[in-house]
Write a structure and sequence with these properties.
- The complex is a heterodimer of chains A (285) and B (105).
- Chain A is built from 11 helices and no strands.
- In chain A, helix 1 packs antiparallel against helix 2 and helix 5 packs antiparallel against helix 8.
- Chain A has 285 residues and is mainly α.
- By secondary structure, chain B is an all-alpha fold.
- Chain B has a domain of 44 residues.
- Chain B is built from 4 helices and no strands.
- The chains are: A mainly alpha (285), B mainly alpha (105).
- Chains A and B meet through helix 1, helix 2, helix 3, helix 4 and helix 8 of A and helix 1, helix 2, helix 3 and helix 4 of B.
- Chain B: InterPro entries: NADP_transhyd_a_C.
């Protein structure tokens, strides 16, 4: 019964998200769009308390503690973000979007970590998808925080050194290799932790050399990343609402990133890797 | 395995494919003035990850899992709430009665 309610609310949320996003793409209906999507979010979050009705055997004794923790986490997260979003001046909004986006990536990574830690994943496909979501979510978290710091003026200089691209590629390969080890189950919790550290490190390294003026495009890219990570974790959790919402954002975000780069007369590759050649100076302009 | 819903990877692939086309279709032909609010709006939508984090927290059976679940719910809730407020404020500038000019992002 509870499962049925949760699934139906997830379906309603997915419909409302798509309708809301559609309305947001026209200036006339935009404001009603976010309200519609907001209703979908409230419905889905309230219904998800129904998960408490059938938790796993091992978690049953911790039900009350987990419920209290959930309420506390929701109150703190919503309270902090709501206040921050209301107080921030209009000029400071892009970095707040970056910060909130990074939080979403972090949440996706946390879901992945919980799934990898627990005994719930039942097939290799699921483990691989979960690890991939963890990788993308962690990159989005770390990259978004750097993007926020740059736009907020906390990091003033683009950090560049010789051979940076090669170094970053090596870190990325290391994260991929660790991810493969985690997925194949040959490493323990230490290896899993190292995998997350490598993914976070790559997110930082990838974003540091990019100039502040390019940050909106980069934030949009990480927004798409978070969407993708959420979609992948949705698959791991057998949750179609997460899969649909995440993938819609992943695809819409990718398109938006391309459009924003085009509006600046740049290609995405140019934005991300322009520290080589004369493009490097232009990114500071 | 705690979830009794079976979903073959092929059905998942179909869902991903259709959702990806939906996202692409919804965003194409959007005026560039709406790029930033739309980025913020889609940022709000992936805040749905908080549902997954709640699932993880409710099924946590050890302190480590509880910490991970707590952090996940905290971050996910921040994503959703912050994304909503910022998007709402951005879009309010498009209201005809707003005092601020619409182009300001």
């Amino acid at each position: 019964m509870m499962q049925w309610v949760i699934e139906l609310s997830g379906f309603a949320a997915a419909v409302l998200f798509i309708l809301g996003l559609k309305r947001m793409s026209s200036p006339v209906t935009a404001l009603r769009g976010i309200v519609l999507a907001g209703i979908g979010m409230v419905v889905a979050v309230v219904a998800s308390f129904g998960y408490l009705a059938d938790v796993s055997e091992a978690a049953r004794p911790h039900r009350l503690a987990n419920l209290l923790l959930a309420i506390l986490a929701l109150a703190l997260g919503i309270g902090w973000a709501w206040r921050g979003g209301k107080k921030v001046p209009v000029t400071g909004m892009p970095q707040m979007v970056a910060l909130y986006n990074g939080m979403g990536g972090g949440a996706a990574a946390a879901v992945a970590a919980a799934e990898l830690l627990g005994p719930r994943l039942d097939s290799l496909t699921q483990v691989v998808v979960t690890a991939l979501g963890a990788l993308i979510g962690s990159i989005s978290l770390a990259g978004s925080v750097i993007a926020w710091a740059k736009l907020d003026g906390r990091i003033k200089q683009a950090w560049r050194f010789r051979g940076q691209s090669l170094f970053n590629a090596l870190v990325f390969l290391a994260a991929l290799a660790l991810g493969a080890l985690v997925a194949s189950g040959v490493v323990g919790h230490g290896g899993q932790a190292l995998f997350f550290v490598a993914a976070l490190a790559f997110g930082v390294l990838m974003t540091l050399p990019i100039g502040g003026a390019d940050m909106p495009v980069v934030i949009s890219l990480y927004n798409a990343f978070t969407g993708l990570a959420v979609a992948l974790e949705g698959y791991a959790l057998h949750n179609p609402a997460l899969m649909i919402a995440g993938m819609v954002v992943g695809s819409a975000g990718t398109l938006l990133t391309a459009l924003m780069a085009k509006a600046m007369n740049r290609s995405l590759a140019n934005v991300l890797f322009s520290r080589f050649g004369d493009g490097g100076g232009a990114s500071q302009a | 395995m705690s979830i009794d819903l079976s979903m073959s990877w092929l059905i998942a692939l179909y869902i991903f494919m259709l959702a990806a086309f939906t996202g692409h279709e919804v965003i194409s032909r959007v005026p560039s003035i709406l790029h930033t609010p739309l980025m913020s709006g889609s940022n709000f939508i992936h805040g749905i990850v908080v549902v997954g984090a709640l699932h993880a927290l409710f099924n946590a059976s050890s302190p480590v899992e509880q910490v991970i679940g707590f952090v996940g719910v905290l971050l996910g809730a921040g994503n959703a709430a912050g994304g909503y407020v910022v998007t709402d404020r951005m879009l309010a500038m498009f209201k005809p009665s707003a005092t601020k000019p619409a182009g300001k992002e």
